[in-house]
Known about the structure:
The protein is α+β, with helices and mostly antiparallel strands. It is built from two helices and five strands.
Amino acid sequence: xxxxxxxxxxxxxxxxxxxxxxxxxxxxxxxxxxxxxxxxxxxxxxxxxxxxxxxxxxxxxxxxxxxxxxxxxxxxxxxxxxxxxxxxxxxxxxxxxxxxxxxxxxxxxxxxxxxxxxxxxxxxxxxxxxxx
Length: 132
């Protein structure tokens, strides 16, 4: 456990709470103004990125993800989900403890239909010096 990591120490973020858990992982949520029900699945052990997860943590993440979906389906009845990892600063990771975003999505939201692949398709995201 890292002393100053807010995912090793969920109580560091005031409104963050543990909703579900298993042997290796937690599902954490905090009140969301935009996409209610969104949360994070995090390993109990401090792992800087998804690439450091053990096989047991991968299995526990998968198992907990299924439980989380069942819970969110019951609570919010979303029309879909965006599920994803950010790894490294350039990849969008801001807290360097591996965490899987679980985001319920709804047909009536302004960005409905925009998923992870939107970054791959948006030509404004072309690198200035694209290698051949």
